[in-house]
């Protein structure tokens, strides 16, 4: 099964799939690894699906993601190169995080939507290069520690 190649990283946080898209050098890998580390620190399952490239396709109205076989299980660490780590073979995406220049990122926002592979997905536009703030935004979106479920949205 082929798929559309998207310049993005993908990871599972518990039972939720996150796509992180952005320009080269925007911090996709840094954010993915920071999210994995943060969720694991709170005893929650978190695992990379693919770093830097992901194959996406529509399945039952949702976005299915998997790693290209040539990079499965590798994360490219800036200045060091590709390094192996545990990974999941695929996931359904629940949230798209688009890393944008800081001047374009809004301080407060409701998630918009984007269309990928013919499917709509909630999208947060967050400042590139600020993994610490982005980790908090994603954790709050999923009501993950240190945040709790709120009446505002259920992620």
From TrEMBL:
InterPro entries: Hpr_kin/Pase_C (IPR011104), P-loop_NTPase (IPR027417)
Positions of the HPr kinase/phosphorylase C-terminal domain: 5-81
Annotated protein name in UniProt: HPr Serine kinase C-terminal domain-containing protein
GO molecular function: ATP binding; phosphorelay sensor kinase activity
Family annotation (SUPFAM superfamilies): PEP carboxykinase-like (SSF53795)
GO biological process: regulation of carbohydrate metabolic process
Keyword Secreted included in the entry's annotation: no
Transferase is among the record's keywords: yes
Domain of life: Bacteria
Record keywords, A-Z: Kinase, Transferase
């Amino acid at each position: 099964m082929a798929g559309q190649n998207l310049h993005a990283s993908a990871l599972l946080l518990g039972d939720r799939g996150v796509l992180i898209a952005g320009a080269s050098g925007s911090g996709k890998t840094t954010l993915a690894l920071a999210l994995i580390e943060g969720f694991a620190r709170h005893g929650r399952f978190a695992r990379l699906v693919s770093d830097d490239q992901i194959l996406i396709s529509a399945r039952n109205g949702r976005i299915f993601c998997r790693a290209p076989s040539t990079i499965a299980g590798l994360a490219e660490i800036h200045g060091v190169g590709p390094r192996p780590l545990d990974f999941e073979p695929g996931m359904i995406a629940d949230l798209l995080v688009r890393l944008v220049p800081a001047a374009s990122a809004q301080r407060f926002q409701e998630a918009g939507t984007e269309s990928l592979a013919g499917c709509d997905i909630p999208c947060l536009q967050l400042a590139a290069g600020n993994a610490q703030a982005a980790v908090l935004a994603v954790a709050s979106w999923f009501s993950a520690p240190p945040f709790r479920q709120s009446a505002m949205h259920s992620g």
